[in-house]
């Protein structure tokens, strides 16, 4: 980019999360800018200086490249770089994209004062090696937490039986005055199933993410979002439109013409290719990764998945897959928030007495080799020291980042068939796909957010226990019509051993 020639008309609104807004380049489709947001009431009085904004974004880059990359594998990570943009360009860009933003996101405004942004590759429009005239598909999945806690500090037994995702969905539905969309949502999809790797479970989890995407599942075609359902939005899912988009990618599977393929066949083909990509190998060596697959409960009681239908139990995830690396990093949360909070209080009290120690313990970064060393050298047992408490808090923050990340799976149809399965290539049904798997949304979680996370955990669990897991009357409409009732009973035809 030539920063002195930036033109807001070269950029378009791409999307946004809770803390940042993303724009993509109109002509250079593989490029996006991510800009910070802050509450609308601070629009005339920015909450931080330009130097602080630059440091915040640089911390995101450092945390991603030095910490999460080591744990998750370099192959999956795109950390980007901090850029300083002309202020007039940022102001005009903010005006241009404002009308494209969803109303429910407009409680926050784009940072127009610092000029700082994070420049990243556009993972929804990949530049893969297979030349094709067919637009690439990109699927964004938020895997959420993939295990149930087994910590001795857990005070409510329900947390060891029902996953946080299911209880949180229940909490959203039953809480009054919440976003309208939550009166229509079901909490029946459990993300724990996605991490358990039995192919039937993964197929089940992805199918239900399609049926209930909320903000956890999106599909892009040629960089444009064609399927999603966001929190706070009243937009209904257009399943027929999704099938219309997907059908050409699977038109010659098993010598069938696309007009003869049922919606079920299209979705099954699509899900199988996606599962194959998620189970593909990749990633480099990472530190602080241990195998804890055998610990704790392996299923969530609130899931609709019929456990009796699993003939051979749950297979463990292959250790070189993206889901395995994410799950193992999530499991750095060994104490649960209930066991972690007293250690947070120990650190907080120490910092109140010795405020200059905040820098020494790297509470706000920098996220470098010394930070990783603190994670790795944490003793198994609590010796009562501040150093132990700091290390466990850092481990918890890293785990929370892994619980809140997104997986981007890019699929590019290939015109050629390969006999072997080398490299980044999927060929479960012609046409085959070249693919890439990436992880994004790897921001460090603030140290000071831990008390808020404890309060939220308490509210979620209390709500679930108070209602006995029952949802308000009328809050469970029929599932969208991707599969008929008969088709729901049959999701095993495409499964093969891995």
From TrEMBL:
<keyword id="KW-0547">Nucleotide-binding</keyword>
<keyword id="KW-0808">Transferase</keyword>
<comment type="similarity">
    <text>Belongs to the IPK1 type 2 family.</text>
</comment>
<dbReference type="InterPro" id="IPR009286">
    <property type="entry name" value="Ins_P5_2-kin"/>
</dbReference>
<dbReference type="GO" id="GO:0036064">
    <property type="term" value="C:ciliary basal body"/>
</dbReference>
<keyword id="KW-0418">Kinase</keyword>
<dbReference type="GO" id="GO:0035299">
    <property type="term" value="F:inositol-1,3,4,5,6-pentakisphosphate 2-kinase activity"/>
</dbReference>
<dbReference type="GO" id="GO:0032402">
    <property type="term" value="P:melanosome transport"/>
</dbReference>
<keyword id="KW-0963">Cytoplasm</keyword>
<dbReference type="GO" id="GO:0005813">
    <property type="term" value="C:centrosome"/>
</dbReference>
<dbReference type="GO" id="GO:0005576">
    <property type="term" value="C:extracellular region"/>
</dbReference>
<dbReference type="GO" id="GO:0060287">
    <property type="term" value="P:epithelial cilium movement involved in determination of left/right asymmetry"/>
</dbReference>
<dbReference type="GO" id="GO:0005524">
    <property type="term" value="F:ATP binding"/>
</dbReference>
<protein>
    <recommendedName>
        <fullName>Inositol-pentakisphosphate 2-kinase</fullName>
        <ecNumber>2.7.1.158</ecNumber>
    </recommendedName>
</protein>
<dbReference type="GO" id="GO:0032958">
    <property type="term" value="P:inositol phosphate biosynthetic process"/>
</dbReference>
<keyword id="KW-0067">ATP-binding</keyword>
<dbReference type="GO" id="GO:0005737">
    <property type="term" value="C:cytoplasm"/>
</dbReference>
<keyword id="KW-0539">Nucleus</keyword>
<comment type="function">
    <text>Phosphorylates Ins(1,3,4,5,6)P5 at position 2 to form Ins(1,2,3,4,5,6)P6 (InsP6 or phytate).</text>
</comment>
<dbReference type="InterPro" id="IPR043001">
    <property type="entry name" value="IP5_2-K_N_lobe"/>
</dbReference>
<dbReference type="GO" id="GO:0005634">
    <property type="term" value="C:nucleus"/>
</dbReference>
<dbReference type="Pfam" id="PF06090">
    <property type="entry name" value="Ins_P5_2-kin"/>
</dbReference>
């Amino acid at each position: 980019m030539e920063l002195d020639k930036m033109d807001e008309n070269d950029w378009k609104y791409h999307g946004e999360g809770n803390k940042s807004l993303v724009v993509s380049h109109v002509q250079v489709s593989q490029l996006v800018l991510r800009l910070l947001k802050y509450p609308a009431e601070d629009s005339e009085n920015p909450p931080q200086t330009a130097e602080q904004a630059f440091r915040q974004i640089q911390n995101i880059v450092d945390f991603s490249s030095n910490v999460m990359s080591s744990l998750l594998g370099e192959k999956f990570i795109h950390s980007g770089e901090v850029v300083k943009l002309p202020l007039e360009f940022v102001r005009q860009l903010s005006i241009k994209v404002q009308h494209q933003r969803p109303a429910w996101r407009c409680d926050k405004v784009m940072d127009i004062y610092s000029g700082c942004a994070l420049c990243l590759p556009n993972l929804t429009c990949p530049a893969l090696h297979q030349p094709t005239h067919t637009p690439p598909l990109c699927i964004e999945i938020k895997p959420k937490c993939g295990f149930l806690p087994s910590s001795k500090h857990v005070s409510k037994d329900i947390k060891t039986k029902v996953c946080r995702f299911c209880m949180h969905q229940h909490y959203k539905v039953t809480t009054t005055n919440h976003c309208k969309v939550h009166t229509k949502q079901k909490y029946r999809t459990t993300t724990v199933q996605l991490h358990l790797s039995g192919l039937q479970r993964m197929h089940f989890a992805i199918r239900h993410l399609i049926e209930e995407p909320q903000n956890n599942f999106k599909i892009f075609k040629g960089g444009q979002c064609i399927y999603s359902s966001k929190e706070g939005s009243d937009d209904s899912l257009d399943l027929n439109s999704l099938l219309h988009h997907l059908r050409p990618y699977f038109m010659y599977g098993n010598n069938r013409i696309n007009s003869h393929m049922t919606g079920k066949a299209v979705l099954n083909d699509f899900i199988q290719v996606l599962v194959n990509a998620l189970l593909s190998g990749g990633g480099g060596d990472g530190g602080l990764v241990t195998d804890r697959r055998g610990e704790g409960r392996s299923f969530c009681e609130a899931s609709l998945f019929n456990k009796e239908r699993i003939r051979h139990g749950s297979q463990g995830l292959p250790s070189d897959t993206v889901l395995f690396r994410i799950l193992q990093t999530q499991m750095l949360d060994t104490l649960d928030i209930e066991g972690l909070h007293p250690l947070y209080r120990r650190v907080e009290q120490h910092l109140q007495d010795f405020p200059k120690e905040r820098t020494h313990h790297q509470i706000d970064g920098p996220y470098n080799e010394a930070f990783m060393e603190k994670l790795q050298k944490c003793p198994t047992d609590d010796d009562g020291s501040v150093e132990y408490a700091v290390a466990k808090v850092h481990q918890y923050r890293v785990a929370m980042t892994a619980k809140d990340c997104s997986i981007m799976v890019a699929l590019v149809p290939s015109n050629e068939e390969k006999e072997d399965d080398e490299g980044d290539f999927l060929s479960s049904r012609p046409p085959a796909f070249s693919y890439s798997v990436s992880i994004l949304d790897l921001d460090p979680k603030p140290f000071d957010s831990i008390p808020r996370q404890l309060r939220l955990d308490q509210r979620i669990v209390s709500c679930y226990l108070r209602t006995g897991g029952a949802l308000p009357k009328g809050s469970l409409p029929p599932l969208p019509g991707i599969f008929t009732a008969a088709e729901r009973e049959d999701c095993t035809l495409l499964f093969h051993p891995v």
